[in-house]
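Human: We require from you a protein record containing the residue sequence and its fold in token form, and nothing else.

Assistant:
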Amino acid sequence: MECQKEENLKKCPCTYPGCERKGVCCDCLRYHLARKELPACCFSKEAEKTYDRSFKKFIKDTGIKPKN
């Protein structure tokens, strides 16, 4: 599959200045998962602007309640 960077850039919500992975979803996902994080596209606009890409932030942002 060929990278659709130009199409991806139109939809990418990442606001991190100078992000070299912007629009290259496979690289972005690989980068964040290796750091136990999620990419910007998993967060609300408000949460994305904090640059906290943690799973904990994702759970808080989405309101998911962990099962006991």
The first helix runs from residue 5 to 11. Residues 5-62 form one domain. The chain has a mean pLDDT of 93.
